[in-house]
Specification:
Blueprint: E1 2-4, E2 10-14, E3 22-27, H1 35-48, E4 50-55, H2 66-72, H3 78-94, E5 100-105, H4 107-116, E6 130-133, H5 151-158, E7 163-168, H6 176-184, E8 188-192, H7 210-225
Parallel strand pairs: 3-4, 3-5, 5-6, 6-7, 7-8
Antiparallel strand pairs: 1-2, 2-4
Helix pairs in contact: 4-5
């Protein structure tokens, strides 16, 4: 069901039957909140008993086409954007749901990594687990702006909750040196040989790899229920 967060941001809230076993803030990819993520939240709620809240990453600009969203990233600040994740966590906490993890894809995966940091961000300490599906470990050059830090620096400098990163070895957005640097912080990295960017969450993409996606989801479920 659609809800409105305290930041006036629209979000999709998916609740399981019965008492939730955990809360999960789900950050969509750069394409934003849409049927793909409505369905994903509902599936995670039904299969695992999680309460899932997915905020729109471009509130008030939901109709922006993908090229404009990419161009807008240089004007995004970590503080403002992470506040969206904090508001989603607030909504879950107000319903008595916990613990709360954060999970994201692509740009959302980058912000899931940033949200994992235990200091230096507006959501420091809010999440007990963080999952990043092919999130940018360092901000892409075209997205860089004065209000952003690289996720790997936040994690290294401030510490982090447990982090699981799902990476394809042919993903240009997560070069091997960045992946190695993230792993050196203590994050758990799952490398899928020959997989490209976006190989898990959208079956309509040419990059989708169903066997690898199923394995990644299995590992993610274990990580979030451990």
């Amino acid at each position: 069901m659609r809800v409105t967060l305290s930041t006036t941001t629209p979000a999709e809230l998916s609740l399981p039957d019965g008492t939730p076993t955990r809360g999960l803030v789900l950050h969509p990819d750069i394409g934003g909140l849409r049927a793909l993520f409505d369905d994903l939240g509902a599936r995670l709620a039904a299969e695992h008993g999680w309460a899932v809240c997915a905020p729109e990453p471009f509130p008030g600009r939901e109709d922006l086409p993908i090229p404009d969203r990419m161009a807008a990233m240089a004007g995004v600040t970590d503080a403002d954007h992470l506040a969206l994740l904090g508001a989603a966590a607030d909504l879950l906490e107000e319903r008595g749901i916990g613990p709360i993890g954060v999970l994201g894809f692509c740009m959302g995966g980058m912000y899931a990594l940033k949200a994992a940091a235990l200091g230096g961000t507006p959501v420091a300490g809010r999440f007990d687990r963080a999952v990043s599906f092919y999130g940018m470990i360092r901000v892409p050059e075209a997205w860089r702006g004065p209000g952003q830090r690289d996720a790997v620096d936040l994690i290294r400098d401030e510490g982090a909750c447990p982090v699981l990163a799902v990476i394809g070895t042919l993903d240009a957005f997560t070069p091997p040196v960045d992946v190695d640097d993230l792993e050196a912080t203590g994050a758990t990295v799952l490398r899928y040989e020959g997989a490209e960017h976006g190989f898990v969450h959208d079956a309509s993409r040419p990059a989708h790899r169903p066997d690898a996606a199923a394995d990644a989801w299995r590992r993610v479920a274990e990580f979030l229920t451990d």
